[in-house]
Design a protein that fits this description.
The complex is a heterodimer.
Chain A lengths: L1 E9 L4 H10 L4 E9 L5 E9 L2 H13 L3 E6 L5 E12 L5 H10 L3 E5 L3 E8 L1 H11 L4 E6 L3 E4 L6
Antiparallel strand pairs in A: 1-3, 1-4, 2-3, 5-7, 5-8, 5-9, 6-7
Chain B lengths: L1 H8 L1 E2 H11 L4 E4 L6 H7 L5 E4 L3 H15 L3 E5 L3 H15 L4 E7 L15 H5 L5 E4 L6 H13 L6 E6 H5 L1 E2 L20 H13 L3 E5 L1 H5 L3 H10 L4 E3 L14 E4 L6 H9 L2 E5 L5 H4 L10 E6 L13 E4 L2 H10 L7 H13 L13 H12 L4 E4 L3 H9 L8 E2 L10 H11 L5 E6 L10 H6 L5 E6 L4 H10 L16 H7 L9 H8 L2 E5 L5 H10 L4 E6 L25
Helix pairs in contact in B: 2-3, 2-7, 4-5, 4-18, 11-14, 12-15, 16-17, 16-23
The chains are: A alpha+beta, B alpha/beta.
Chain lengths: ~160, ~575
Amino acid sequence: MKRIISVLVENKFGVLARVSELFGSRGFNIASLSVGETLDSNLSRITMVVDGDVSIFEEIKKQLNKLINVIKVQDFTNVEHVEREMLLIKVNLSRKTRAELIEIVDIFRAKIIDVGRNSMTVEITGKDNKIQAFIELVKPFGIVEIVRTGKIAIARKKGGE
Amino acid sequence: MKKDKAEKKKLSGAEILIKSLKENGIKVIFGYPGGAVLDVFNHMHDSDLEFYLTRHEQGAVHAADGYARASGKCGVCIATSGPGATNLVTGIATAQMDSIPIIAITGQVATNLIGNEAFQEVDATGISRAITKHNYLVKDVDNLAQVIDEAFYIATTGRPGPVLIDIPKDVQQHKSSITKSKGVNIPGYKPTLMGNLKQIKSAAELIEKAKRPVIYAGGGVITSDASALLRKLAEKINTPVTTTLLGLGSFPETHELSLGMLGMHGTQYANYAIMESDVIIAIGARFDDRVTGKISEFAPHAKIIHIDIDPASVGKNVRVDIPIVGDAKHILKELEKSLKAKKHTDWIKEIDAWKEKFPLIYKKKKDFVSPQYVIECVREVTKGKAIIATEVGQNQMWVAQYYKFDKPRTLLSSGGLGTMGYGFPAAIGAKVARPDMPVFDIAGDGSIQMNIQEMATAVIKNIGVKIIILNNGFLGMVRQWQELFYDKRYAATCLRTGALNPDKARKTKECPEYTPDFVKLAEAYGATGIRVSKNENVKNAIKKALEIDGPVIIDCIIDSEENVFPMVPAGASLSQMMGGMA
């Protein structure tokens, strides 16, 4: 099962390695990862999507809390939350396909951020399934390249858990 | 002029390091110099620090560990970059597994060379990340004083452990006006000390109802200085106490409530008591696999109360009914207060019957020295007023079984990592910490050779560690497993032939009588060597060794087929113990 976990850490070099090593050394693959500063520039938030056994996951959470540079660990598994990720996608373009592509972009409330003669780059944010649906729809036009951010999440209620 | 004055007040990184170590109460350092720590040694040259030059960095880190275990203070070791740092790795991991506070300082290549595959460069913080409680690479001399104070705080508080500080050569040379930390406040590190009162109350209620309670005490009781409280509690609620290897000494083994050690080579009565208990009070122990045996069959009738300072230890291996996170000292005080005095006459009677039926016993050999007897003699001659370090394997288990530990911090043994070669340098560290106490290293002829070079350290500084080698010409514990579980195929465990097939090798080649001759070896270092091949000479040899001012090796020739019993085979339940008689 895929789980989203958010780790509030001190904004220092080497911290990401400490966090990711706990997963790697226990055979957990990190499906996505995103790191950014928080309101307090001394702190960073690492958001990860990981896949693996529940009991090992619980063990990793305890070990994460034990890391000196980790301030808080938030597990979104059973927490109501909103999540987003962003995709930049470069699609082949021709005079014939142009209108149809723009229409799809509109329907998905995506955004064209760059247009060339033979290709166009679209930015789309949303949940997994929306992004996946968009990719499927534009596949026939020919996808040149995809770049995807890691997933980020925030709890609906104040305070998270 | 003013600028000059400010400049004069600045200190180099090396000076800040030494000043900060002293401010943290450090008087003793074990280590080995090298290119990337020359600046630090240059400043130590004129300092009043007591420095012990070991013959290998691993010796230095184990000595710092032994110093810490014997004294309860933080141990400090120092090594150069590259191979110096990698030679510390085993010792750091040993300390991490057993929760021992040490500070390991490593030199690093200059910051502009880091990542260049420079001469003697390794990523010391990367390598040690998984085996330290925390580590630091100091890239700016302005941070150094702060880092050192944080390192000491982290190493010695909560569940203690090793902290490595990697200091590049240029950082040791750069000057800074920040020569003091601004106090330690780490937002992500606030160990819980006081146990949750509600949980303590629930535990008390459970203990009140218990009919067959057992206390299972670990090294955490010793770390927390809670031995007196443990005894008070056990006596008040009339509950037997078994300990882990690292918990030996936390409760007097001569006490009528003592069950000795539990687990793979524990006493039968300790294991039976655990298996039949209805409430287990675990204190500062982590339900290691060598303790629990087959986990699914461990203590089937028991509710478990687990007191530990490390929340990650609680519930890791076994289901816990009442977890209490905090310092054993605080929690035991509260728990004792909230409990009424009790008597468990029937339960104690049942246990006493087991003690009678399944005692620890051995047959004294005629043609060899009996290792169990040697341990008993050390206890008798010193009246238990000694510090005993062990290596790893049979020697370690015989000590655990036959030396009745009465006092905390008198056993130094690598429990978690099981590091052969730990005992001798650890004994050196212990003797430095406690020159008033006789210090022994009980070794095998295999493990003593893993750090025998420290004989030079001991001789030069006249550190009177007494080494007793239980010499069976084999890697005894591994050979025992081969005998019991691998059809007596002694692949590569015979130290005299060194062969994959010793039986075959002996047919074609005569083995030397000793490899090495430890008596001559001791003499080569300038120490004293005594060989003992009969039980009747053991006591005198120990007495003689104690009379000699300086290190001594007593080489005891034991039967190569000697085994450690009783034993729970790996992966079996604690109720399936093999062999009462060794």
